[in-house]
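During the reporting period the student researcher (J.K.) took over the structure-prediction task from the postdoctoral fellow and processed the backlog of single-chain submissions. One of the processed entries is reproduced below for the supervisory committee.
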Amino acid sequence: MAQGPVDNIILLADCYKSSHYKAYPPGTTKLYAYFESRGGKFPYTVFFGLQYLLKRWLCGPVLTKTMVEEAKGVIDAVFKREDVFNEKGWNYILEHHGGRLPLRIKAIPEGTVLPTRNVLFTVENTDPAVPWITNFFETILVQTWYPMTVATNSHIFKQIIHHYASLTSDSTEFVEFMMHDAGYRGVSSVESAALGGAAHMISCKASDTVAGTSLLRKFYHLKGVGGFSTPSSEHSTVTTWGRDREAEAHRHMLEVYHQGDAGCVCDSYDIWKCLEETWGGELKEMVLERGKRGGCVYLRPDSGDPKEVVLRSLEALGKAFGTETNTKGYKMLPPCVRVIQADGINHHSLWAILEHIKKHGWSTTCAFFGAGAALLQQVDRDTQKCAYKVSYAEVNGEGVEVYKQPITDTGKNSKKGRLTLQHQDGKCVTVQSGKGDPAKDLLVTVFEDGELLKDYTFTEVQERAANVPSDFDVIEFLRSDAGR
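J.K. obtained the following structure tokens:
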């Protein structure tokens, strides 16, 4: 990726971090911190994105004399004083470690599906002369929250679709293509699009956020692409033809992309006339002929009440193209035509649509979906209550358990001591206070002294993320989430 506005690793942290090296107890030689989801919206997390941050920012010699000089000028100016910036500490790392960061990071393998309230990764300094470095990089490392949360968000979308497909269809083979990422334009930056787009591709293979593929190719050894799309119209490619030539616009789309799949937006004017008269009449034979060649036309409503619009669209197309009843007893459109709803989709609207069309006798695999903001942007660090806390220190040669217990919010209580993640009684649990068995620890060292020690492929990530917690009931989750 091209360089961004910040290239100096000393400026990758909240400003106040620069003042903390003086605030720890004199004689401190070790700080050990951990990152977790303290709960939040989803009962589990799909861990993803740490490898990108490590490769992008922390691997190799990442500190230079020029950076130290630049950062001193910036930090001195920010605080309007010259006794804050840790020039000696940064120069020590430069001189004794060649600009490599003396840190050890252990993490669960990327793609792991883990119940919340468990440690996801730990960080500690490997040089007792610079213990402050552990918490200095909290800011950048905590940004793992975004790809991790989007990966979990997408995983839940897939579980909802899979649940209904299992109930109403003879096959679930298309489930991974039934939630399309349409969020590129709606996120805060290209980097967000790349991270969020890549996170979605772990569970789902339909995407227009091609930046996700770019990130996976560069940072996760992807050889091909992570998400697939199809030639599709937008409102401008229809409305430039004029209202009286809408049918001609759709015909033209089918002609210039005469084989394979194609998508057409249908609500530029009167969607019901478009579906019933244009697609169900004038263009019907073109759709059927395409189907004989293995192609499908995806017709997209883009306004109105999604629940009612999807059902009425299916009914209109069923009347025009006919239906068959599958072995589960639900109506199916012929494979040459489908509805794709990409407006107003979130977990609860998706649930409402699928339940609604199921109750009206339709297989839910007749409707595909897309999400933008709800997939990539309507999440934040508190969605999964992500936090990074110091839990262990060594001061004057003595080990110290470090923790917080705010009387006003027990949900923010932090873990104590050194941590291990272990299987106990069939569940993953975090063992605190150094009482775990290192031989059973699921955390593996991924980074040490500037070197990446584990380099996961996207295929490995996907294989791990294919798991779903055995006690997870997606409908019960939706009901409980609706009541919050």
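The committee noted the following: The longest strand covers residues 28-37.
J.K. will present the remaining backlog at the next meeting.
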